[in-house]
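Batch job 17 of 40 flagged for manual review because the log was empty.
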Amino acid sequence: MNPITMYRELAAAGTMLASYPLDYLIRLGLPVGIRLSRDAVILSHGLGGDRTNLAALAAWVRLAGFNNVHFFEYPTRQPIDESAAKLVEMIARNDAGSGIHLIGHSLGGTISRIAASRIAAANMGEGAVRSLVTLAAPYQHSEPNRHEIADRHEIAIFGDEDPIVRPPGNEHRGVFKRIAVLRNTGHLGVLYHPETIRITLSELWESRVRGA
């Protein structure tokens, strides 16, 4: 890991630790900008993390005009398939009739992907996934229709020096709508990278239902 990546990882870890006391403020709600869409956005943290890890990204999402924001949390030892089933239930509860946008970091991205795949397989009208952005998410865990859902929805963002989840090789690249590999970035750094924020907000903007 080069010095730039190491610095970014340490800075990301520090930001993550500093965010834990902000949980109370997050539950009260963060300031919002002009409401551009009533679409619900659900953010899922990585293994061993919690909602505060996504506080910065959630703030950007709200300030971009998406104030119907929720966090999906799951126990560390809960099986992935069970977590995905819980997320599907949460999607059904929070869809306002215009669809859902999913954003997940690490294992949370994998869970979001599986949930989106199950919704597509069930042809659910309610809770339809309008967009899916995964951040440093493992991509080996799959379901039969994994490729179909990914082609339509998933934008996958990776760090080029992530020692935990390496960017996919050519054999996997065809199953994503788009792949972005961030230079000098590790597993935590991808969460706070300016390009991650830009790509995520751009995808929300393009996929949203217009109007409030």
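Reviewer: the log was empty due to a logging misconfiguration, but the result itself is present. The two ends are 45 Å apart (CA to CA). Unflagging and moving on to job 18.
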